[in-house]
Design a protein that fits this description.
The structure is a single chain. The chain is α+β, with helices and mostly antiparallel strands. It has seven helices and eleven strands. It has two domains: 90 residues, no CATH class; 127 residues, Umud Fragment, subunit A. The strands form three sheets. The chain has a seven-stranded antiparallel beta sheet. The two termini are 24 Å apart.
């Protein structure tokens, strides 16, 4: 298998399959039955379907299972790389176990209700009624997820993208952020542009190129920055 095929930044099910086979054959160096035996919750039919891009291919949940299992086998393999071919590449974990990156459970928040900090804190309790998902990104205990509802940030962030947001991380120029704007009922997701003392929010969709950037006012507030984005594209 050629390196350029493995490193291809694509989230097609075929590209995901190539990366998964590369992970098992070249990095873990184990057979399919051995991998199933060593990773709890993994089944041979699922692994075979993922490696041969069958029945939808490798899913978000499958990538999380593989990523978590690989840590116990001495390989750090980010889901971002498995799913999209981007971000950190897989690497050996130090034998002294000083490096740990275990998938973390975070709440999936409603956009309108997420304007309330108290609501977000309540969701952190993870009761049975809450929607949750997992991320392997390094985030604080205050991190939460949102599902992008519009096309204002396409093509980089299509509608339906899962946004992993951390309100405890510091923002900087060109960060992607969610913000509470005084005249908006819901949080908005934009790119932050810093020009001297002024902070602006900018949509990146070419369809909105005629819209002026929004200047953040004294009553506006950045509620968190984007740490990870995930999106499953429709199958052809």
């Amino acid at each position: 298998m050629k390196n350029e095929e493995i490193l291809e930044s694509s989230n097609s099910k075929e590209a995901r399959a190539k990366r998964l086979r590369y992970l098992r054959e070249e990095l873990l160096r184990i057979s399919r039955p051995e991998m199933v035996k060593k990773i709890s919750g993994l089944t041979n039919p699922s692994l075979q379907n993922w490696e041969y891009a069958q029945k939808g291919g490798l899913s978000d949940r499958g990538a999380m299972l593989i990523s978590k299992g690989c840590l116990s086998l001495g390989i750090h393999c980010p889901t971002e790389w498995l799913l999209n071919g981007t971000g950190e590449k897989p690497f050996l974990v130090s034998s002294d176990k000083s490096y740990e990156r275990i998938p973390k459970k975070i709440p999936l928040i409603d956009w309108k209700k997420a304007t309330s900090i108290d609501y977000i804190r309540e969701k952190m309790q993870f009761d049975s009624k809450n929607h949750v998902l997992f991320t392997d990104a390094v985030v604080s205990d205050h991190a939460f997820a949102l599902i992008l509802k519009d096309s204002s940030m396409e093509p980089q962030f299509p509608k339906g993208t899962v946004l992993i947001i951390d309100p405890k991380k510091s923002h900087r120029d060109r960060s992607f952020v969610v913000a509470k704007i005084n005249n908006h009922e819901e949080l908005i997701f934009r790119q932050l542009i810093i020009d001297g003392p002024n902070h602006y929010l900018k949509p990146i969709s070419p369809d909105l190129e005629n819209f002026e950037m929004c200047l953040l006012g004294k009553e506006d507030e950045i509620r968190g920055i984007l740490i990870q984005a995930r999106h499953d594209y429709e199958e052809e």
